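Page 47, continued from p. 46.
Same chain as before, 626 aa.
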Amino acid sequence: MTEHPTSHEGRQPLAARSQERTRPRQEASASAVPQPAVPTPDPAQTARREGDRLRFVGAATRRIARGIDLDEIVLGLCRATVPTFSDAILVYLRDPLPVGDERPVSPFVLRLRRTDRLRLTDEDPEHGTVPGGIPTQISPTALLPLLDPQSEVMPASELCEVLSGGALSEVLRGVRPVFGDSAAARAALPELLGADRAVPSGHRAILAPLRGRRRVIGAAVFLRRPDRAAFEPNDLLVAAQLATHTALGIDKAVLYGREAYIADELQRTMLPENLPQPTGVRLASRYLPAAETARVGGDWYDAIPLPGSRVALVVGDVMGHSMTSAAIMGQLRTTAQTLAGLDLPPQEVLHHLDEQAQRLGTDRMATCLYAVYDPVSHRITIANAGHPPPILLHLGGRAEVLRVPPGAPIGVGGVDFEAVELDAPAGATLLLYTDGLVESRLRDVWTGIEQLRERLAATAQLTGPDHSPPLEALCDDVLDVLGPGDRDDDIALLAARFDGIAPSDVAYWFLEPEDAAPGRARRLARRALARWDLEELSDSVELLISEVVTNAVRYAERPVTLRLLRTDVLRCEVGDDSPQLPRQRRARDTDEGGRGLFLVNRLARRWGATRLSTGKVVWFELPTRT
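Result:
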């Protein structure tokens, strides 16, 4: 068979020949109808847009991270995104928000977080632009769509219950943000915003779950108006970053709020809520923590009423200002109150506090000053355990640092404490304080004490030689000694103004423990009441004194003491050497006795019994009508 070379060389596949036949026609058609040019991405522009996006995310996350409490974090998210990233935003948070490992309550309820009570005039220190050239600085009007849940821009309901297995639950469980026009978001948004509400027509939205460290705690909806560029796929990553930082910040704020609440409650229970109002002395106090974030520490003060119208004044300082120091302080304060109730001498109180501190641990150290003021004798007994000495401001304006043996701090062990008894003239003011008031990085403790003494003297001279400065104003003036930044430790301050009880308002007798003692007590009390123009109280006082003295004589071996004090009330005190406290009981009809304390309880305004180191004192008070 003869082959034709020309035919073999020109042979082509059918498809190729078909393409050759149609190519001229297609080229002609292409030349007749112009085709749109496919834009080639500009690498420089793309890189610039991504750089702007990263700078925006960095600035926004820094703004969110600056918030400490819940309102600041939510507002930080709003200001970081409106109008830079979106035209409006709705933030829903779990109600109530779980704290730490706390199991959330059921049902799962989301509440719209309103920010109408937050400040909207602060300027954003972060400046820059994102794709489109929109500045990151936010005006107050930019947040108006957020403030009104019924806004036309983004209507929303206040509460939303997330149904188990529902569309919203599935989106929240998925954690990742979704576009508003996706099938999942179209089903979830009506559940979140309300059955009769939806994203307005033409608006674009992103639904972003807020997931904390352990669980989903809410959701955020970002919205753009129709006249603005639609969200891009990369915007989902931006929304995810914003949601993550916001959720973690909210977790932090909730934990911080719980810690602040615990600190406040600890301080409220560790320190006296209100100072007592004992007879013959006026009291004022101040407490300043070392820092606002550590609201309670190891400093404490106390005023404890004692039998005989006396009062114990206590100030102490446990090393450090942590929660541990506060807990130790609470135990020492409770121990001091218990020991004061036993009416032990000040040096004995410090000795038992020292033993208690050693039981708490070898490194539990504290300083303490314990003083007992007697308004009848106008004397004060002070014992010190390594604490700064008190300052006594006299009525004439002279301020002196009292010479009190310093002693060793509580917790050292094996040391003795010494008490001194000093005059406490009427009108004088005793100032007890912790070392945080007089010691800092800028000065040593003795320099601070001298400055404090000079400040007290200068303040007293302004009020004149015959008047004492107001007690509350004096405490405020003392704190002014501290300069800016001149405070490194907690400060506890207790001021006592000594008024005393005049000798003319005191009647005191010794009664032999015999059968005639109740009758003699009635006669003595009647004469004293007549001298004080309180004859209208004679019947009640004689009846109650007779019952109390009869009970004391029954068990006493040494002379019984009887004392009447006239202040704003009439106080009667009967002391004996028997440590057994009387107990009120209901007597039977056939009993001959046992009704004395029942009468005292019915007729007296107040009454009580206190065990002393030498026996006990039973007292009662009656209101005066003069």
